[in-house]
Amino acid sequence: MAAGDPTFWTVLVVGIEPEVHAVTETMLDRATYAGQPVRLLHARSVLDAEAALRSGDDIAVILLDVEMETQDTGLRLVRTIRETLGIEDTRIVLRTGQPGDAPDADTVLRYDINDYRARTELTDVRLFSVIVAALRAYDRLRTIATQRDALGQMNQTLELRIAERTQELQDSETRLRSILETSVLPIFITAASGGQVLYANKSAHRLLGLVETRCDDDIWHRPADRRDLLNTVGQSGSVHDVEAQMIAVDGHRFWALIAAVAMTFDGQPAVLISLNDISSRKAMEEELKRLAATDALTGIGNRRQLMELGDRELRRARRYGGPLSVLILDIDHFKHINDTHGHALGDEALKTMVTCCLQQLREIDIMCRLGGEEFVVLMPETPVSAARTGAERLREKVAALKIPLTGDETLSFTISIGLTEPHQSDDTLGDVLMRADEALYAAKREGRNRVVVR
């Protein structure tokens, strides 16, 4: 595991009915993921579940019955987990009595519910697939959290090094020069007014080309960053952890973490500036942001990115009065593909379908994975009439796909699409997605492989 107990994955099963626990125990007996076994904890009431969550156990997934003491007990427990207990990484899978009992889309999005399924849908294979998907998402979130902690430790270490150096520099200007020359960090002293370089150590000379009598203003990518830094030092005496882009002597730009302190040098007010190249750290942060917003299987945006971009496009459409079309689509009979050919081929079908759709969509269109086999396409500046034409094109192109199987056999499949646009009565993006989802299920009821507009 990426974090927590290294020997097993803990799944908390919450439900009031004894047979639910017995059946789950049987279905997940000897289940493993990433080489580690799955351990089940059981809670037969909300109080039992809260006690387990407060115990400090590293719970990866919660398999939660919606109906327990009351009809909405399960959803109230979800709210407690996310809002009261502040547990964000643990994945939540809801089990409902019937498919029609599923929570509304806004609840699923607001409380980051990983999946929801009717009990009748959760066969051995399906339950294992749902648990594996939740464990994969949990593992990825914990890995990102660990890497962020490591970045924080790097910052603290750098701050400590700069603070120690600065304390030593106060002894004398003679000692100051000898200490600064030994530093691997670029450090220079500039006049508080005018920007003339009064001193630059060897690292600052090699990286930035700084020499005494030269002005330091051309090493800053944004001159405003220099002005802001000097203003802050003038007001508070020092600054720490300021990030800015600098220009190296060879012309390339890099990100630097900067600390500065006011001082007197050669009898005049000056500022000592120390910087550290954090370009690799910034790249890591950008990669973490990308991973947090990307679906690992298909490479497109995940639900989190969908909500961010969807809210942005909805606000833009309302502000400027432009059209916005929203599609929800999924593969018809996807469960049959998984059950017949295996999950590996099911994953290949999802990736192939996404690639096909991206080839047909415009650059301004946004495609994200909502969850499972459901995908959302946002089409800015597109009225429903034009979006329907585009949706029919997607449907036809996907229907023409052929995925090779063994021998000369191939796999073909179709998609159903629900299409809508924002209404005046919609409060949130969730309202729009709910209506598109209703259109999708209407397409399913009407025979699949079709586009339905609501």
What's the topology here?
Elements: E1 9-14, H1 18-27, E2 32-33, E3 36-43, H2 46-54, E4 59-65, H3 73-84, E5 91-96, H4 105-110, E6 115-118, H5 124-169, H6 173-182, E7 187-191, E8 197-200, H7 202-208, H8 223-236, E9 238-247, E10 253-265, E11 268-277, H9 279-292, H10 303-320, E12 324-331, H11 334-341, H12 343-360, E13 366-371, E14 374-380, H13 384-399, E15 403-404, E16 410-411, E17 415-420, H14 429-445, E18 451-453
Describe this structure in words.
- The chain is built from 14 helices and 18 strands.
- With 454 residues, it is of the alpha/beta class.
- A 6-stranded mixed β-sheet has the order 2-3-1-4-5-6.
- Helix 3 links the parallel strand 4 and strand 5.
- The protein is elongated.
Strand tally, please? Answer: 18
**Helical content class:** 40-55%
Instruction: Please outline the major beta sheet.
Output: 6 strands, mixed
**Widest beta sheet: strand line-up:** 2-3-1-4-5-6
> What integer is the average pLDDT?
86
Class by alpha and beta content: alpha/beta
Determine the oligomeric state from the structure.
single chain
